[in-house]
């Protein structure tokens, strides 16, 4: 006989890990690491995140001195649709994970709220969040070298994927595990 409570607790732990990994991926400045800091006209940060506040200014990053274009300002001013899609997917996934985590904890603490419907919806929400994170990571992988503008595009091709990307990939992997655990919890709950 399976124990829905044990699966639900393991599910909550895995959703919490997914939540932390997605938050770290979303709010850290490590999506792109630049191999060089300046090409003479544009100063590049050491790395950049998905939001403008996660892009170290060239002065903070030890970039080129003198005049020239600040990469952070230029990049965020001209972000492309695929970059916006990555941000939107991760933000929506983060919101879904937040709701799922709170809802899961409430259903475990308050037994009357632990219904078959809640047990069935939670793994679906986790699956949806996993798909969104996977889509964002895949889109970023495919499009990471493309950027309008010769100098910025050249720097993109000479940059590498940073640690924040790998945090998102790990969040997706943990999300798949959480979905499976949630499915087991729902199956156990449905049977007993």
UniProtKB/TrEMBL annotation:
It comes from the Eukaryota. The chain crosses the membrane at residues 6-27, 85-106, 118-142, 163-187. Keywords: Membrane, Transmembrane, Transmembrane helix. Pfam families: Claudin_3 (PF06653). PANTHER family: CLAUDIN (PTHR37446:SF1), CLAUDIN-LIKE IN CAENORHABDITIS (PTHR37446). This is MARVEL domain-containing protein.
